[in-house]
Amino acid sequence: MVPLAAPRHSPPVSESERPRDSDGPTSPASPTSMDRLDAAALSAGDVYRLMTDLVTPRPIAWVSTLAEDGRPNLAPFSYFQAVCSRPPMVMLSIATRPDGHPKDTLANILATRELTINHVSEPLSQAMNATSAELPAEVDEWELAGEPGARLPSRPAAMVRPPRVASARAAMECRMTHALPLGHGPKGPSSTLVLAEVLVFWVAPGLIRRDERGRLSPMDPADLGAIGRLGGMSYARTRDTFVMPRPGAGSGSHRPPKP
Ligand SMILES: Cc1cc2nc3c(=O)[nH]c(=O)nc-3n(C[C@H](O)[C@H](O)[C@H](O)COP(=O)(O)O)c2cc1C
User: Fold this and answer.
1) What are the φ/ψ torsions at residue 88 (nearest 5 degrees)?
2) pLDDT digit string, tens, across residues 125-140
3) Is 145 within the bounds of a domain?
4) What's the structural domain count of the chain?
């Protein structure tokens, strides 16, 4: 995403430079000296830096859409989350281009209400990144993401039109339910929040297992191999994981009581 306003620089204020709050010292576990940066005094670029450094790791939605005339588009978005389970819903936040125009993904979603979100595992990271280039709408990112001279292979979706990435370990066919403009850029909203309902889940062979009562067992994160977006150009792998049952959920249960 691109800074949307002229920078307003404000030096960070460190806690040690300020008088201590009247309600006493920080707890023993708190860092003793932290930098305070008030959002309203920061440039858009600095705010973006803090948001993307501090809200991490972020999952990556690799979003396939079609323009009204059927032209395909594929691009990654890490302002992405699951927000509801009944019905399954996800959200994406898509920044407005500096010239005020919507990114192709948003224009396509608003025109067709359909999107297919592909899971990104480490072997797909280069292909995913190739589709993040800022390109004219006529360019088919599937051409850029494939092996030299070949289009990235796709598979048809079942309930929406945008195709799936054939080599993705999972995909979700979605229909947009809401689009909410957020913030103020120099030329309109700075972003648009898209909420979408998941209609179909696709999962690679071997990942779906059920327990003796027929309930889905948790997937092995190593088999799924998701990558996450960190700050700057960094990414996280999900190989190094640990298990921690929630209090009251029973030992080893994958079904915590309720979110
Ligand atoms: C890992 C990754 C995550 C990204 N996340 C976002 C995001 O959350 N929102 C956004 O507006 N752009 C994001 N981008 C940039 C878009 O992918 C980029 O602007 C792309 O060109 C949009 O393509 P489109 O115009 O075809 O929709 C991200 C790029 C990368 C590599």
Assistant:
1) -65, 125
2) 999 999 999 988 888 9
3) yes
4) 1
Atom of ligand 1 nearest to the CA of 73: 26
Q: Which of 201, 56, 216 is nearest to 118 (CA)?
A: 201
Which residues constitute the domain of residue 90? 61-204+221-229
Of ligand 1's atoms, which has the minimum distance to the CA of residue 134?
21
Q: Which two tokens stand for residue 123?
A: 């072997």
| Average pLDDT for 227-232 | 98
- Amino acid 129: pLDDT: 97
pLDDT one-digit tens code per residue, 7-17? 445 555 555 55
CB of 63 within 6 A of ligand 1: the answer is: no
Alpha-helical (H) ranges within 55-199 are 104-112, 125-130, 141-145
Say which CATH number the domain at 106 has: 2.30.110.10
pTM (2 d.p.): 0.88
